[in-house]
Structures are given as structure tokens and as C-alpha cells.
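We emphasize that the prediction below concerns an isolated chain of 187 residues; any contacts that depend on oligomerization or on bound cofactors are therefore not represented. The input was used exactly as deposited, without trimming of termini.
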Amino acid sequence: MGSGTGRMAWIAGAVLTLATSARAADEPTLVVHLTDYEHVAPKELAEAETLVAAVYERIGVRLIWTSGSARLAPPDGHLHVDLLILDLAMTAADKPGNGVVGTGSHTAKRAAIFYPRVLTQAIRSQDRPARALGLTVAHELGHVVLPEYSHSPSGLMRAEWDGHIGTIPDFLSFQAVIVRNTLANQK
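Result of the prediction step, given as a C-alpha cell string:
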């Protein structure tokens, strides 16, 4: 009974692994190439990445976090985008408008986060920096995947954020469909 049970468990595990791999291969996937010029604390960055991944997971999209340039990524059927977390000097050089904490471009497949402004917003709204960073990253990646000018009156893609964040909102249902379709069409 011992060896038969062990063999059955191994077979069941192998089947589950294959099924999970097949499902992951079919799942719309966004590969985020992160360059962190601010050198955000690893624990804060990991929490923000988890929060962002959860937002996208709720609409059926898998995020893969990696480094390097998206332009240098080999073709693999996934959308590769660049995410830059900028420090104070880089934020100043970019000259964002008042209150702007990040930018994202569908055309350039690139998002930039003005981390000093995100941190200021977190302090002002009494939020954890990781939550403010997660909201900003999720929103700006939304701009990268959605068509240009994709703000909405509510949900994740709302243009303005005042006060305490609480939880990071979801995409509106029609936006979720666009995101999934955009990523599915990369194959």
C-alpha cells in the first residue's frame, strides 16, 4: 500500500502541475519589467507587487514581475511592458504636473511612477506607502494596457484620488474585458 499510494500521489501531483501549467499558458499574462531607481524597501515593493497582482488576478490576468527592458524580451506571446519607479531627481527632470504621481502610455508600453509624490500622498492620506504605491502601479499599468485616455468616473481608473485608500478598487467590468482581450491578442 505504501508504494502504490506514493505513486498515485506522484501521478496526481504531476497531473495537477500539467493542468496548472496549461491554464497559466492560456491565461492572459502581463509581463512587467521593473526598474526601481528609487530603491524602494524590498518589503514595501513586495507588498505593492502583491496588491497589484491581486487587482489583475480578479479580472483573470496573471502578472509576471521581472527586470530588464521589455524591448529586449524574446517574443513569448505575452505583453511585455516597462515600469520605472523614479527617484526625486528623475521626477523633477520629468516635470509632471501638480498632483501627478505617475504616468502610463498605451503607445509606449511604459509606465513611470513618481515615488516621492506617491510617498507624499501616502503620508497625506495616512496610508501605508506600499498601498499607495500599489494603487499607483495598478492604475498606471491600466493606462498601458487600456487605450489612451482611459480614465473613468469610478473604479481603479478614476483620475483623481483624495483621502484614505482603504482597498485598491477594481477595473470597471468593460475595462476588464478590454484588458483581457488586449492581452489575449498578443499570442
